[in-house]
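Quick illustration for those who missed Monday's session on complexes.
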Amino acid sequence: MEILDGKIVSQAVKEELRLQTAQWISEGNRAPHLAAILVGNNGASETYVASKVKTCQEIGYKSTLIRLEENIEETILVAAIEQLNADSTVDGILVQLPLPKQINEEKIIGLINPDKDVDGFHPVSIGRMVQGLPAFIPATPYGIMLMLAHYKIPTSGKHAVVIGRSNIVGRPMSILLSQNTNPGNCTVTVCHSRTSNLKELCLQADIIVAALGKPGFLTADMVKENAVVIDVGITRVADPSKKSGFAIKGDVDFDSVAPHCSYITPVPGGVGLMTIGALMKNTFRAATQSKGN
Ligand code: GUN
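Prediction with guanine bound:
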């Protein structure tokens, strides 16, 4: 069993971007610029956004963080996005999700200029991805593809089971794994809350991507010997022994599953770390394609 180490791979991705950015700037271009909008005070969102801003600094990007109150009207957020869309010095725009309930998430995502949609959530980005065109790929599935590529894990002809069908992880993951690319060329089964024979399907899988958000859901009796297991779960579970008062738990029961795998991602230290690297790759791409450059 080998651990797929998100720390090693994300460091490699970031180092490559740092060098590319230095080169880009030395050619007379301005630094790539990511603008993030954070609405409210959701603890997990605060942590993610802080980490994104810090990574921009490490790589040499400019970042702007726009903070809005939890109870704002939708029009305020709309205006903020329109301003960033019109600003030719901003390459990437990210609206941290989830948004407060008075705000229509779908509408907000649809307002972001697709050329700046570094999260890859806009229908234009999704459409391009589905057609196999150059596209901004959502950070989590993109990060997983980068990890599979880094460890040269064979995927062609394999049966991949994706558990979860969210717009930001499960569904794009299933599409990427099925595409005629490397990694890719998998036969993909998408499982979800209505799947009746989930255990049976998982037992047939060469690759399992667990992205349902239920801590410890995937247990050893559901995993074939030598399967590749990718754990996307990042649920906060109360843990008084931790200073923060919580621990981060994956969707995989790591201790029981790991001995049966050929490769497995840990939580923390796996997929989560890759997502920021993937976002940074999208941001560099946005900057180099930007009409403001
Ligand atoms: N919330 C959870 N994951 C993400 C992500 O990848 N991007 C944004 N914007 N919000 C998220």
